[in-house]
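Continuing the batch. This is chain 6 of the set; chains 1 through 5 are on the previous pages. Same settings as before, nothing changed between runs. Recording input and output for traceability.
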Amino acid sequence: MKYPILLLFLALTLSTFGQSRKKLSIQTIPLKSISPEFKDYHDLHEFKKLIGEAKIVLMGEATHGEGNVFEAKTRLIRFLHEEMGFDALAFESGFYSFNKIPQSIKDGDCPLECWQRSISPIWVMSQEFQPLLSYLNRTQKEWSLTGFDCQLLGEYSSEMLLGDLYQLTEQLNYKLKEKELALLNEAINYLSESFDVPDDFNLKELNQILKTIELKLDKKDLTSSVNGLPVHFWMHLIYNLREVVSDYYHNHPGRKSRSEFKASDSNVRDRLMAENLLYFIKHNPGKKIICWGANDHFADQVNQLEEEELQRFKPMGSILKRDLGAENVFILGTTCASGTYGSISEKPKELPNLKKNSLEAKLKKDLSLTYAILPLNKKDTITSYAFDYLPVKGIWGKVFDAILYLKETNPTHFYRGEETENDEPISPKKNVEEFVTNSIKPERAPKEVYTYRALNSSQVSARISGRIVDSKKEKPVPYVNIGIKNYPNGTMSNLDGCFKLDISKDNLQDTLSVSCIGYTTQFLPVKELLDSAISEIKIEAQNYSLNEVRVSVERLTSKKILRKAIRAIKKNYTQKAYSQDFLYRMHLTTKKRDFWAFYESAVKSFDSNGYGKRWLYMESVKERYFHVASRVAELDTLTGKHGAFRRTTFTTDDAYLDILNYRKNSFLNPNKWFRYDFNLSDTLKFQGKTVFRIEFNCKYPSHKSTLQFRPEKYYGYILINIDDYAIRKIESYTIEKKLKFWQKNYPISYEKSRIFFTKKVVLYEKQGDLYYMRYACRHDNWSTQRYCEKFGFEAKLVDLESIKIPEITKMYNPNFWPQFAKHPYFNKHYQYQELKALR
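Output for chain 6:
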């Protein structure tokens, strides 16, 4: 009997750490589960021995696109916190953003929302990351959180950094000139939006500004506080900005495609990320830190891998091992053997077929091994897919201390949960007359067209040209709207106030409207302008005094009204899933302007949480659109003849700007208000309701604060109901920067137009107890979509689970259009006479 006992003893011995598995010659620590809620940590005791006395654990991932890897890492974080006393969590996210969190919480912001605004969207917007956020929220007093990325990631960077730097210079008695402030704004816009700077960027002047700030800070005690944060923080932040801008200016890593980008292009970023973490360690002694990021950043000696590109790469992990000691830093990489991967912004991809001799292929052969941690030998040469799922051969034990293995992975999924807000309720005023006692000036007549379009050459009968000037200052007024009253024909004055407007035969007896925010609208007969050949039109600055208003409790300002309107969104607009039908119409033209087409389509939209607050990418509004019918009419501009409507497969996903769903990234976000001027200009009547008219002008325009592509100027107005603070109408104007992109794609417009402009209008109307988008239009003078508009019909609340989106677009049916064409709202605004003739 002694031999069976001996065999049993050997079997029990081999089941512990360092076991030699029957099918594999690889040491493994099998994991029972990767679920964040699995609290039995017996399977992780050997992992605890591996970490030993290390104070920092770097926890990587192959591509940021493995959903169940997020869950596995969350379980390991819980274990490290509850069993080993780790009490700090550092993310590959903005260094600046996380340092703004304490003050935000002190000001009353919810900690969870602060983290969501700071952690990179690839994690915080994914469903699989939510268990970690929930755990941190439950145990928030036990943690210190930070970010170590030098990139300007997170909303704090794009929304508050410029304002913080401005306040900092004020407190340092360094008065920034307008030109210097504009340069800082330009730099922050580029750093936070495109991760690049243009070739003609004024790096020398920016460095001089940053150097002046550093010299001012250097005279102060490093531990003293300036603008709410220690001097040493501002010194380190300025250093980050200077290094990042220099790297972008000289190396342009953001311009390189995936194939062009080399690992060494990240050397500056990895060095700064290591330095940012070392900064946190220096000012938070005694903390045991878990780092969340990518495998390649956390790697150590990548020169031990047989890949030429990696020989010049100096990752963050190697710097930390060198400066803190190898025994104090434990690196855990991650790899998977099969399945699909992809972040929330990517299309899922299949993992490649594995080489037979690779680490992953050998592990996959063991059918009993689903999840495991693999301690790596620092002498063995193996092939692994741990870097972006590409096979790389080398001594991986000198790259990672261990690898987290998942047999199969799945991509991340967009998080659709609702967020909570702590806004005060809005009580509608009992009596509008308490606010307005005088007669209210009506807005423009309801029949007035909401935007402009250009004429075809065959339609031009005459031309008016001239110059718009300020009547008092005698200076030219740019960006003035000049159009035919109650018609869509129009243009805009250029930077010198000059304009040219083509007039059709039908409009010779009509009236010209000259309007600009800040000036009184002028109405001039077209015939008189043609007869007298007036070359200069003078407009008067508007006196922005409100109609007589009596406020019973509080003094209303533009920002107070806006805050009330933002808080009232939950009450006035659905927070639940809904669908809505739209009729979409668009003018199309070729780049050479020699061919036009009129396009119509019936569109159905679905939105999973209505106008509820959510974390969106810049261009995400509706979940999905599909076209149930479409038709196109063609126009030969040489002959002026129309073709018949024909069935077409042409579709578009142009959703129009639904500003309430975009409010996080617009003037409806109070964190961006330092970039804007607001003016409560009037109270007036709009569609039978008394409304406030609030004008806005963006002082420091960027894509993230205006939602426009490359704005040079952005302004407009908002109409807000007095009784329930519902936002009823938004009209905006954008002056676009003339880029080489325009010259390449729209050569005719580029040569003819000194300015590129876009006008957008959105209207909301009440359906039952809630408001929905009713009408939207867009007009520009540069793209192929010269003029397009969308009419909204009945909206319906839906069960999210019942939404079924067809895979194939349904095509035009002759019986389909009448239900839209007979609708009174559609007929009232149907502007193209030539389209009517074709129906």
